[in-house]
Amino acid sequence: MKKADVVEFYRRLAEANPHPETELESVNHYTLLVAVVLSAQATDAGVNKATRALFAQVDTPQKMLALGLDGLKHHIRTIGLFNTKAKNVIALSQALVDEHGGMVPSNRDALEKLPGVGRKTANVVMNVAFGAETFAVDTHIFRVGNRTGLAKGKTVLAVEKRLDAVTPQPFRVHAHHWLILHGRYVCKARRPECWRCIVADLCAFKPKTPPPAPEKTV
Description:
The chain is mainly α. It has helices spanning about 5-15, 30-40, 45-55, 60-75, 80-100, 110, 120-130, 140-150, 155-165, 175-185. The radius of gyration is 19 Å and the shape is globular.
């Protein structure tokens, strides 16, 4: 995608949604971190449903440790891989208490040393909590980057690095939110809704998906 097209691509997404936000619900930096860890291979809606009652009761690593592993499992049992995720949340909570005074660190190295926290999770926390210009590439962004031609790459890291290289100001802070939402609701995996896409003319995907046929009336 040409530089001018990249700028126009983001300009349109920004105009349609000037203040994009993560769809994961949280009450502070710690609960955001927990929510992102729980969201791996799960939907944001499913995580939110499970964590509303949890975060009303638990909003610090100290409170999570007091709740304990079994208590946490009870809250998140509807989330996929909840046994492993519960162990990671308890372990990262202990690490935050022992190594960071109970606070969520703002730098990548410290975040990625926490149990259950990989590069994507660190990128989300850095961006949402601390306003860092990071690109958390999930399946939606990977698909949108490659399909549109905005940021092609064979791996998640390759797409992330390409996005970092081509995304200009003032779009960098919100870029990954725009791309996630675009992939989730418009540029869908099985059938992209090209007929209502605001950046369709800038996109390399061919052939464009036509609108669904109107329902026949009897």
